Amino acid sequence: MKLLRYIIPAVLFIVSCNNEAIKPQLNLETGQIYYHNLISEASIEQKIMGQDMGVNMTSSAKMSYHVLDKKDDVYEIDVTYEKMAIKMSFPFGDMEVSSESYNEYDIFSQILSKMTGRSFSISMSKNGKISSITGFESIFSDVFDLFSEMPEEEINQIKDQILQSFGDEAFKGNIEMVTAIFPDKDVSRRDKWTIDTRLEALMGGDIHSLYQLKRITDSYYIISGRSHIVTDDDNAHLPLGRMPISYDMQGSMTSEVKLDRETGWVIESSIIQNLSGTTTMKDSSLPQGELSIPMSIKSETTITSP
């Protein structure tokens, strides 16, 4: 009975903490530097002219966020890629590149190396949405110098491909999948809310997400999400080399994010995406002038804060 006197109040305290109303949001400190380590594993299955062409890709990056100022609940932040690496497995062989493996014969590692250590600026509100990105294009100025001896048409094609994967809009979409998850009002445990964001890397699309506050503790809270992704109807024939390509895909995304209660910064996050549909390439040399390719993409992204 004496033991129950201690246990019951403790249980009631835990229950009351989990049922309290809070407003999760970013509460970053000016002058501080925050970090993210990102690892993404993706498998792409596609059938080209009857042949299975699977691709597995693992990418990793370390990023720093230096909070310079805060005005009207908007943070001015300098973002830097500290290091980057990509490993790809094709049916015909493997490729591995890294910003830390620079040599004059490995042009792709040179690209990553020149992208690291240079900052660009973002304006991010307390709800995790990015309102502007500046200075991103300057990061690529040295990258494009690597191709100065190529014909201008080929250089422009390479620029388009790099910017589709690593440009400012692609960066915004990737980051907001993790940061733009906050409700616009106080919530209690099990409360739900919706957020709409954009998918911009390689293909354009809309992400409609339903989030729920799953757990509250003294030091962190956990938010889970379920999302539906649909590529744009007018996502028509983006340049991919000399072959314009369009995407008609949709699928789901599940996420679970552990946030520091004091700062709202991501401590841990896991995001799983499943997309399927078709891509269509247009080229006059192809039968009927185009080629439709069934495709499915499965990916899992993990983000941690050291």
What can you tell me about this protein's structure?
Helices cover 21% and strands 51% of the residues. With 306 residues, it is α+β, with helices and mostly antiparallel strands. It has a single domain, classed as Lipovitellin-phosvitin complex, beta-sheet shell regions (Roll). Helix 2 runs antiparallel to helix 3 and helix 4 (152-166) packs parallel to helix 5 (168-179). The protein is globular and about 65 Å long. Mean pLDDT is 84; it is low at 10-16.
In short, what is this structure?
By secondary structure, the protein is of the alpha+beta class. Helices cover 21% and strands 51% of the residues.
Could you give the topology of this structure?
Layout: H1 2-19, E1 33-48, E2 51-52, E3 55-71, E4 74-90, E5 93-98, H2 107-115, E6 119-125, E7 130-134, H3 136-145, H4 152-166, H5 168-179, E8 192-199, E9 205-216, E10 220-231, E11 238-240, E12 243-260, E13 266-282, E14 290-304
Antiparallel strand pairs: 1-2, 1-3, 1-14, 3-4, 4-5, 4-6, 6-7, 8-9, 9-10, 10-12, 11-12, 12-13, 13-14
Helix pairs in contact: 2-3, 4-5
Q: How large, in whole angstroms, is the Cα Rg?
A: 22 Å
Number of domains: 1
Which fold does the CATH topology refer to? Lipovitellin-phosvitin complex, beta-sheet shell regions
- Shape from CA axes? globular
In the predicted model, the low-confidence regions spanning at least 5 consecutive residues are 10-16
The largest pleated sheet is described as: 14 strands, antiparallel
**With helices defined by DSSP (H or I, 4 residues minimum), what is the helix count?**
5
Strand content is over 45%
Helix fraction bin = 10-25%
Structural class: alpha+beta
The second-level CATH architecture is Roll
Order of helices and strands: HEEEEEHEEHHHEEEEEEE
By DSSP, the count of extended strands is 14
Distance between the termini: 44 Å
- Compute the average pLDDT: 84
What is the CATH class?
Answer: Mainly Beta
